[in-house]
């Protein structure tokens, strides 16, 4: 999660979204869309192993941390952004789908472009 937060913030800086820009933008119209091939598989695998011992050993954070959208949710919460927020997981086509969906959110005025 720490790597994802760092990468997301570095991507904003690379895109010209500085602290000054962040103060002026409408956070209700800023969203986070992150593409990933998989979620937190280590957490998921650990949960499967725990279930083999007993259902009482199941970590309650297994599902939230194993889903691919946890990265976008954490980044949005950290930035205070309240616009569209989800993750796309489509293997090799993930980046294309992310760009297409982000563009569609901007065209439909659900989000603003930087």
From TrEMBL:
Its EC number is 2.3.1.41. The keyword Transport does not apply. Keywords: Transferase. It comes from the Eukaryota. The keyword Transmembrane helix does not apply. It holds the Pfam family ketoacyl-synt. Residues 3-111 form the Beta-ketoacyl synthase-like N-terminal domain. This is beta-ketoacyl-[acyl-carrier-protein] synthase I. PANTHER family: 3-OXOACYL-[ACYL-CARRIER-PROTEIN] SYNTHASE II, CHLOROPLASTIC, POLYKETIDE SYNTHASE-RELATED. It comes from Coffea arabica.
């Amino acid at each position: 999660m720490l790597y994802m937060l760092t990468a997301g913030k570095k991507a904003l800086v690379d895109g010209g979204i500085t602290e000054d820009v962040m103060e002026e933008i409408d956070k209700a119209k800023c969203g986070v869309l992150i593409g990933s091939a998989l979620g937190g598989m280590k957490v998921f695998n650990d949960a499967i192993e725990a279930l083999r011992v007993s259902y009482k050993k199941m970590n309650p954070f297994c599902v939230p941390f194993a889903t691919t959208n946890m990265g976008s949710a954490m980044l949005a919460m950290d930035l205070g952004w309240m616009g569209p927020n989800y993750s796309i997981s489509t293997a090799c086509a993930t980046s294309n789908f992310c760009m297409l969906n982000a563009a569609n959110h901007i065209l439909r005025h659900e989000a603003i472009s930087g």
